[in-house]
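Table S2 (text version). Query chain:
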Amino acid sequence: MFRIWKRFLISVVGVLLSSGLNHVLAIEVSTPKDLTTVNGTDVRLKCTFKSTHPVSEKSVSVSWSFKPLGPGKEEQFFYYHEEPFSPEQGHFKGHVMWSGNVLKNDASITLRDVQFSFNGTYTCQVRNPPDVHGFASEIRLEVVQSVKLSEIGILAAAVGGSIVLVLLILTVVFIVRYFRNRHGDAAIELQDSKRGSVCFLEEFVPINQPEKALEKDKLQLQDDLEKKHPEDEIDA
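Corresponding structure-token output:
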């Protein structure tokens, strides 16, 4: 009985160790989930990986496969091992370019002059023996006629336009107030100059009034003297 339990425990430990070893040696492949591009342009399908085993040109192999949105089978259309092997037939012929660098953990490719038939799911698979376990990563590519504005993009454009409009209104208000204040200061200066002239005339008149009064009094005095001594004029 003891031997049976011992064998059972040994088998369980062996399974756990083997599963743990596989998990440690599992390669991690990462890609964006969704990607949108415009018909007739180039798009880079980014794929990166992490391996617990040292990476070299001879050890790493990369494969890309494609499954269309509609009915159709999944097909491998690109392979890399020390050098790229692009498709020589099919609708990907002349449209695939290697743009990765396995020494930098980059397994990306570029699709050139994308067509609407390129809509579908792309799978990136990387192997680096003995690190061969792990899951492939998928990208859902959507090819559109023109760029679609997202809700965030529309909101950002609306907010930006509102800010520009507010700044424009504030600028116009500032300019109008500036010119109003400037014309107001000029009008005040003109009024002050006019008031100064009036005050000068008003102050000038009282200064001349005593001289005229003295001259009038002098003439009145001479008349009075002539009336009092008329005989002097006769003798003369």
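Notes on Table S2: The chain has two domains: 24-148, 152-229. Residues 1-23, 198-205 have pLDDT under 50 and may be disordered.
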